[in-house]
Every structure is written in structure tokens, then in C-alpha cells.
Amino acid sequence: MKRDFSEVERSSLALLAALGYRVVEISSWYCCGGFPGATALEHVKYVSSLRTLSVAYRQSRELGADSVVTSCPFCYNTLRQAEQLPVSRPGEYVRVADYLRDELEPYRGGLRVLHLVEVISARLSDVAKLAEGRLRGVRVAAYYGCMLLRPRAVAVDNPDNPQVIERIVEALGAVPVRYPYRTYCCGSFHVLAEPAIVRGNTERIARSIASSGADIVVTPCPLCLYNLRRYTNLKVVHLSELVAYAANLREAVSPETLKVVASLRGET
Amino acid sequence: MTSGIEGAHQVREYLTIYFNGEAYRVPKGLTIMKALEYAGFRFTRGAGCRGGFCGACPVVYRLPGDYKIRVGLACQTAVVDGMYISLVPYVPLVEYVPKRGELRPDPGYVLKLYPEISRCVSCNACSKACPQGLSPMDAIQAILRGDLKKAAELTFDCISCGLCSLRCPAEIRHPPVFRLVGRVVGLYYTPRSKSLEERVREIESGKYGKVFEKLLSTPTSEVRRVYEEFLKTGRLPQSLEVG
Amino acid sequence: MAGLRLTPRELRELIREYTGREVTACMQCGLCTAVCPVASFMDLHPAALVRAVQLGGVELPKLRSIWICVSCMTCVDKCPRDVAPGLVVETLRQLALKNGVEPRAYSQLPIDETTPSILLVTYSRKSTG
Q: CA spacing 20 to 30 A to C72: which of A61, A124, B34, B205?
């Protein structure tokens, strides 16, 4: 995220600051690897997330913080599942925690793992005040992707019919459009080795979006953004950028997004 | 078992080490390298500076009654009674050595050459193996985050022994990665040394050419005489002064 | 590759041990295949794969489906019998990786400076050991 999607980091931080949150970067965080271990064969995949949570917890006690917020759906999914691990799969948790004990005090719970979407949607009226209807009339299609919704245990909203991004879009004064393929997988990492899958899936999503009459697509996931931009000619922006733009935090929004959104406002 | 060495009668205490499965009695207080030489081995490979800086003599060992596999440098680790030792003179690490002009100040460039970096599970086995006490894991994670400067800073003291790569479950080639990062950061981020650049310019302009040619054509014995004279008086003969 | 030669019973027990799911519960309703975003690219679609595991007929080194699954977890959430084909695939994938079967090497991938780390990381997690 820091490297390839720095605009997401910038806009998310600006947005959180505008909403009055104090955000501190975890002093040393570790790449979670994108996918949590789905089976007991893979408990090693929890090492990095639990390491990150352990550091975060130690730091949170010094700072008086109570939540870990991330703008990456992969991090969110992995950290959230790791956060639940002591309860959901205690056997695996104990094995990973025992391994980590050599170096640091293992995480035992006590932090809330949040995605940026949850933070924004909890403060809709403030977001609406910041937005002052700057996007009035723009028809926005929300594309959720996978990682915020599945598995059910870590979903930010109802995985079958999520509404959270639509509500954010409404708060911005824009018009959410709903279409069937909102939660359909874009093909994810296959863009590297099996591009046909990603091309097929993104085209399917694009057709669905086109028929809904949307002006712009908004997604919370950088990998979805990458895939959709690569294989379709949709106007796609990251959720944090759109909200930051609407909240008049233009200096935090990347020039390309500014251009895309500006062209929309000219049209509508 | 061997013992014949001059002064051996002065040794008060012996202990037993196991090297490649054989037992050897060696005096207490030696480093692994010296103990093995005492036992009659000659290092033709896997020994260098003998001062803990060149990274040529990594060694893995276990201690009796301890499950942990430990690592160190043979020239820096003292023998312990009952130690099981194996030398690791060489770790196979395929390295890419791009030309200076090809280096790019971009983490993506490093990831392109060494994509296995992205397999890091942050198990920290590398840091536990590092005889220099570095944290290769944090450096690898810094690269993943796009922070090459931090990675270079964290691995400045790397001696390229390769023990981290040997222990890495993700099979990351740490030493070549760190060398590459060091080169990139050195080229693009570290402040240039003005005096060095000035001297290079001087050399290129041919300022030292005459003196250098003169030195090369002087017989060795004469050079030695001039040098000894210089040590005594602090002065060079007129013919060797740079004008 | 001794780990790949499992009897149907051993395979079922392995899946139960590692995922807590029971493949014999599958009633072949086909919902998993219906919701799978990549089923059309697989050699054995999710429901067929579960059936094959029930009957013990998977040849792991040749199976493409385990590398095609993107772990979107849709089938895991939808399965009415809690078989969770996605987790079955995950177990098979881990089994293959642990026995040295990999879909391809990094050298065959089109990696360049602009490849996002998020992409490399997720690919590595799913397709390398």
C-alpha cells in the first residue's frame, strides 16, 4: 500500500484527521501475506498478523488507543481473523503464540480491528457535513470485492447484500446505483499468471456496471482497483480518494482521481 | 583424538567437541576455528579475516541437552564441552549483479529481481540466525513497504555469511538482496563525498600521471629505499612530488 | 511425493482434521459451483471436486482447480451442508505444496517494476510453499 498505492494512504490519513481521529502508525508492522491460513495446515500464516497485533497492542497501551484501522481489505481480513483466532481456533492460536513467545508477549485480545469503511460509516453525518453535497447527482457504483465480506465471520456488512458503501455514497450527496455483480470476485492475484480469468471476470463486472448507468465506480480494494483499471475502461477510484475529494481534502487526492472526478462534475 | 602441539603440556583443561560426527579433545578457551586447527584440520575454504568481519566462516552447532540449533562464526565462537559442530563455508545464493546504470531507486526493481521477498511470513528465523545481531526480517519487511533506505540502514553491518538464507522458510536470498539495496541506496540517497569526486577528477585530468609512470619504472629496491627515507624524514624526493 | 498417495479415507480424515469439515456431508446441490467466480476456468469445478474427494479420485499433481481457486470464500459461506469446498481446495493446495508440487516458477511470471507488492504477496501465498 505504501509503495504502490500511496494515494490511498494519503487520502485515508487526511480523512481520518478531518474526522478528528488521531492515527499512529504501528511502530513495526509486518506484511500479513494477504490471505489468512484457512486450514490448520497453515497456522504459520498467522505469525505475521499476530506479530503485528502484538506490537500494536503494546503500543496501544502506551497511547491509550483501542483500535487498529487499516485501509487495505487484505490486511483487514487477515488481521480480523487473527484477532479472532484465540476464540475461533484456540489450538492454532496456542501454537503460533508459543512460537512468538521467544520474542514478544503474544497478543491476547483487547484490540478492535477496523477497516476504514467501518470508521467512515460510523460517522456518516460528519462525513455528510464535510462533503457539503459536492458530488450531488453523480451516480456511483460500489464494487466491494471479496475481502471485506467473506468469510461471514469477518464481514463488515451483510455479505449477501452489503449496503455500507452505498450509505457512504449517499452521505456524500451522490446517488448509489446497485447492480448484480457488486460482490463478484475480480480474479485477484491471477492477473499475474492467469490473466484470462481476470479479464473474463472484470469484463463481466464492467458489463453489469455499465448497464446500471453509473458514472463512476468506487472500490475499497487496491487490487480490485488495479485489475479493473487494467482490463476495463471504467472510471474507477478508491473509496478513500472519493470521500477525501468530497470532503474537500484535495491536496490528499491523486491528480488522476482529481481529473476523473472533475470530468464527472463537468458532465453532471 | 589428537594432542601433539607445542606447549600442549601447559594446557590445564580439555574439553570434547564433535566435528562432522567425530569426537576431538581440544583445550578450553579456543574459538571453534582454532580448536579445529588444533585438532589437525586445515582451512582451505571457509576462513578469511579471522576477526569476525568477513563472514566466510559461518558455523552451525548444537549444545548438549538443548534442542536449539545455534549459529555463529567459527572465528568468534568459543568451544563448549560437548558441542556438535558443522561448518557452512558456502551457501548457494544466485545473485544478480546489475551494472551501475541499471540500478533503479525503486522497491519494485528489487522485488522484480528477487520476487521471493514477498513470501516472507515474518517468522524471524533469520534474525535468530544472524551472527551480527541484525534483523533481516525487519529489513525485508521494509522493502515490502517500499522503504529501501530503512532496509539499507538495518543491514549495513551484514557480512553476507548467508546463515539467514539457510534458515529462511521462504527461501529468501538475503545477502544479495541487501547488497543490491545497499548499492541502490548508496547510488541514489547517500550524500556524495565531495573530496572523493574531486580526487577522481584530478586523476582523470592526468595530474598524477607523470609521478605514477615514474614510480612504475623505478625498481622495487629503489622504491623501498625512498619509502624508508620518507618514514624517517617525512619528505619525498623532488622527482616524486606532484607538481 | 509419498504424502500425495492417500486412500480416500485418509484424505477425508485429513480434511476433517485440518478444516473441521466433513466432505461426506455433501449432497451435490451444486451451489458452490454456481456461485464460484472462476468455476469455468477449472478442470474440476467445486462440486465435482468434492465428489472426487468423496470417491478418492483426485490426482493432485495434475489437478488445476486447486491453483485456480482465488479463495474468495463465497462457496464457504453459501454451502448449505457446511462442507465448504473452498477449504477443501485449500487443504489440497497445501498438501500439494508441502509435497513439492507448484503450479509454476517465478521465472515464468511477467513481473516488472510496476507489479504491486500486494499482488506478488497474494500470489506467493497461494501458489508457492
A: A124
Please check whether residue C125 lies inside any domain of the structure: no
Flag whether residue B111 sits within 8 Å of chain C, measured between CB atoms.
yes
Rounded to the nearest 10 degrees, the angle between the axes of helix A73-88 and helix A90-100 is 110
Give B195-216 pLDDT, tens digit per residue.
999 999 999 998 888 888 888 8
Q: Count the neighbouring beta carbons within 10 Å of the beta carbon of residue B38.
A: 20
Assess if CATH 3.90.79.10 describes domain A124-267: no
Rounded to whole angstroms, how far apart are CA atoms A36 and A18? 32
Q: Is residue B66 part of a domain?
A: yes
Residues 7-66 of C with CB under 8 A from A: 17-19, 37-38, 40-41
Q: Which amino acid is at B42?
A: R
Instruction: Collect all residues from A whose CB is shorter than 8 A from any CB in C.
Output: 1, 3-5, 31, 33-35, 38-42, 45, 72, 74, 146, 150-152, 159, 183-185, 187-194, 196-197, 200-201, 222-223, 226
* Residue B31: inside a domain: yes
Q: What percent helix, strand, coil does chain B show, rounded to 5?
A: 45, 10, 45
Q: Helix or strand or coil: residue A162? A: coil
Please report which helix (H) or strand (E) contains residue A177, including its range.
Answer: strand A175-177
**Mean pLDDT along residues C49-56:** 90
C52/C59 Cα distance (integer angstroms): 10
- Given a cut of 90, whether residue C8 has pLDDT beyond it is no
- Chain B interface includes A80 (CB < 8 A): no
C126 touches chain B (CB under 8 A): no
Query: Is beta strand B70-73 parallel, antiparallel or unpaired with respect to B22-27?
Result: unpaired
Q: For residues B178 and B104, state if they share a domain.
A: yes
Question: Rounded to whole angstroms, how far apart are CA atoms A180 and A214?
Answer: 13
Subunits next to A (3 or more Cβ pairs <8 Å) are B, C
Surface of B (119-158) touching A: CB under 8 A:
120-124, 128, 137-138, 141, 144-147
Q: Do the bridges between strand A139-142 and strand A112-115 make them parallel or antiparallel, or are there none, so unpaired?
A: unpaired
Number of domains chain B contains: 3
Give the tens place of pLDDT for each residue, B37-86.
999 999 988 888 998 888 889 999 999 999 888 989 999 999 999 999 99
The gap from C-alpha B19 to its chain's centroid, in whole angstroms, comes to 24
- Shortest CB distance from C74 goes to which of A5, A150, A189? A150
**ipTM entry:** 0.89
Q: What is the pLDDT of residues A72-111, one digit of tens each?
A: 999 999 999 999 999 999 999 999 999 998 888 889 888 9
Output the domain CATH number for residue C29. 1.10.1060.10
Which structural domain, as residue segments, surrounds residue C31?
2-103
User: What span, in angstroms and rounded, lies between the C-alpha atoms of A168 and B47?
Assistant: 65
Record: contact B123-A31, CB cut-off 8 A? no
- Domain of B12, CATH number, reads 3.10.20.30
Please tell me the predicted confidence (pLDDT) of residue C2: 53
pLDDT on residue A114: 93
The domain that holds B157 is classified in CATH as: 1.10.1060.10
**Which percentage of chain A shows pLDDT scores above 70?**
98
pLDDT mean over C18-35: 93
CB contacts < 8 A, A to B, total: 39
Q: Cβ of B98 under 8 Å from any chain C Cβ?
A: no
- Find the farthest-apart pair of alpha carbons in chain C and give their distance in angstroms, rounded: 47
- Over residues A186-224, the pLDDT tens digits come to 999 999 999 999 999 999 999 999 999 999 999 999 999
Q: What is the three-class DSSP state of A164?
A: helix
Domain carrying residue B227:
202-240
